Amino acid sequence: MNAEVLKLQGGFTLIELLVVIAIIAILAGMLLPALSRAKAAASRIQCMQNTRQLSLSVQLYGDDHQDFFPRSQHSSFAYHQAPWEITVRPYLSLSSLTSSSAMEALHRGVFKCPKIKKSSQWSYGLNVYFELEATDDYRGRPQTWRKQSQLPHSSETIILGEVEDSADHIMAHFWDQGMPVTIDRNRHGKDDLSLYGYADGHVSSLEFEVTYGTRDRPADQWHPQGVR
Would you say the C-alpha torsion 195, 219, 199, 128 has a positive or negative sign? Predict the structure, then answer.
């Protein structure tokens, strides 16, 4: 009896303590990757919801503005219009921005993918093809696609994607000329997946090469005509 009491009062032996530490380490090794995957999945789901909401807000903007697409910073100021991240706010149940400090809201909420840590980096960019004028340099000119009804394949035409720079737009029409691609191709995992919002409102998680193909697979889902 006394021996048992002494053992309890003395606590764990060194061997027992090492065994407990080893078990904790094993459990942590099993749980941490699962927690990391769960966190990544939650971020991806949030980004997908953001992309869907923003895509639908662009559609709703067109419904109230004679079917026109909103403009991005690529052309909005030249035409004395507000860029899309401001003009679509009413369709996201967000208040208008009236001060420079309020501009910070553009990098939060639905406009911000949780995977992005930089406060100055945009999460989503609008496809510039819908802002081009007949005088611009692009494949397919002088045809333009300023209105949503002008798209021949709305379910196969990307209106916005995830960007890796500080722009609110994507210069997809310059890719044919060898300009850098600003899509964040690996935002959602090792499979080089990124989210894309389409003109009909749906969202897809794809490899970039599926949206802008190679010579063997010449699809171009950024160009309203759909081919390269």
Answer: positive
Task: Report the DSSP pairing between strands 169-170 and 158-162.
Answer: unpaired
Distance CA(153)–CA(145), nearest Å, equals 12
Judge whether 129 and 224 are in contact, CB under 8 Å: yes
Beta pairing, strands 203-207 & 193-198: antiparallel
- Using alpha carbons only, what angle is made at residue 98 by residues 43 and 58, rounded to the nearest 5 degrees? 50
Q: State the residue for tokens 């003109």.
A: 199
- Tens of pLDDT along 129-151? 999 999 988 888 899 999 999 99
Instruction: Please name every residue paired with 205 in a beta bridge, in sequence order, or none if there are none.
Output: 195
| First and final C-alpha spacing in the chain | 87
pLDDT at 10 (0 to 100): 56
Quick one: tokens of 34?
A: 């699962």
Could you tell me which residue, 153 or 96, shows the higher pLDDT?
A: 153
> Is residue 228 over pLDDT 60?
no
pLDDT tens digit sequence for 198-213: 999 999 999 898 999 7
Contact between 75 and 131 under an 8 Å Cβ cutoff? The reply is yes
What span, in angstroms and rounded, lies between the C-alpha atoms of 134 and 151? Answer: 16
